[in-house]
Amino acid sequence: MDMNLNDQLDVDVLLDENVEVGAPARNPRLPQMMRRIPVTLTLEVGSARISLQDLMDLGPSSVLPLDAVAGEPLVIKVNGAPIGRAEVVVSGEQYGLKVIDLDGLNLDLITA
């Protein structure tokens, strides 16, 4: 299950120097124009491999075990590529994410 936060999170949030300790600092080599390019940010809860028959048998009360353990951090993906881990939080009446780490966010690869 992916939660699409594209409308709620701009890539500038990931580049903001005011983000909590452990987040990457602003990359001065990233051109201003590129900072506004929209990306799709998703949180991956887990996955399950099932047969087509099992898929056809799914219904409103079905429970499908995932490969993730309850309580472990979710994977943050940008355009499908994993960049870090996060926890789901409630922000007002919406869900949000609390970034744990951004080990896979390497902006040097796109600016080199």
From TrEMBL:
Gene3D superfamilies attached to this UniProt entry: SpoA-like
UniProt GO BP: bacterial-type flagellum-dependent cell motility; chemotaxis
InterPro entries reported in the protein's UniProt record: FliN-like_C, FliN/MopA/SpaO, FliN_T3SS_HrcQb, SpoA-like_sf
GO molecular function, one term: cytoskeletal motor activity
Domain of life: Bacteria
Family assignment from sequence similarity: Belongs to the FliN/MopA/SpaO family.
Protein name (database record): Flagellar motor switch protein FliN
Organism of provenance: Massilia litorea
